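Quick note —
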Amino acid sequence: MAVTRTYGLTGGRVKVQIEDLLGKNPGGGWVYQAPGVGNKNAEGAHYYYKSQTAQGSLKTAGSAGQFGFKVNIAEAGRYEILLRAARDTNAPGDARNDIWIKVDGGTQSVMPKGTPTLTSGGNGFVKFKGAQTSWVNAHQFSTSKHGDKNPDSIVVFDKGMHTITFAPRSTGFHIDSVQVIKVGAAKAGASTATAVAATETSSIKTLLEQLDKAQAKVAETKADARTEVGADKDADGVVSAKIAAAHDDFESNKAAASKDLEFGRDGAGEQSVGLRFKGIEIDKDAEIKSAYFVFKAAETSKGAAHFEIEIEDTTHAAAYSRADAPDGRSYLADDVDWNVEAWKKGESYKSADVAHLIEKVIAEGGLDALDALAFRISGSGERVAEAFEAKGGDAPELVIEYA
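Predicted structure written out below.
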């Protein structure tokens, strides 16, 4: 087993790079990949598991290739474990998208009350799953009984030292970093950071004057902002916004202006698509009944297509560029599966419901007309939609119905 390090949490979270645990000569079936080598868009170096079995996956957690670390928990509570991971293929029936994990003496023993029985790898290890062909934050444990819902990778920690150990399972499985995050941990927003900085250099009176001016400025620009981005809100509790600029829809392979958005695959292979929407106002206490994208098909597309929709973990999402593409950003651990129907050119189609993703991101402060939400869509199959650059007014639209 690799050297185990100990980490403390800052602000309820810690992020550990796998290279800090495995080094450049990991052994045990793991292969070191230097920055820029192998699976693209890793955060520096990463690793993949190359050992092969007849089935492609190890049925139990062996001692070879294990690695882990300790976390010093200052506050008891629920903590989420996220593993930044990717896989070689998304072929139908390919279940090689997981790794074994053991938390303390056994993962099942630290799960929230009522969690169903998890798939065991022996010696306290359970199956940790959720990788895709692009980098994602894997965030689920696998249940052993068909029909049980796979639970989120949330464990219950007492105050004190805890150990997290991984063991390899699946061939072609790539790993990059692991995070431990307290559920409900406070997020440092831009307004908080600004206020802290101001108190260091100004008196309270000066700070209040600055805040008053800032609030007035926001009030003056809200209407202009909505006009610029094309958002529309009616009295029935529905708000919508279309992609309103060339840098707000982005294909990871092309990374350039395009009249269509090829979801799932393009000529260069599998890719992700980023969508950014600005100019939506929703109160933080609003109950979102449904939320979905509306796409106009640019081509007739048949065959199976299964996409994963993720939301960037911020209400201040930046515009896309080559240097700040969708695959390099931080997303909520939760996501939405979308099994896509066949598309006919010229027809409009709705996505799966993403309401709960939006609710999680806006829970602390709602949405202002100057805020922006960003989503990433990736997966298998292919569908092609009109992009902003098509100039026909058929750019992707986000529609939110709320109470």
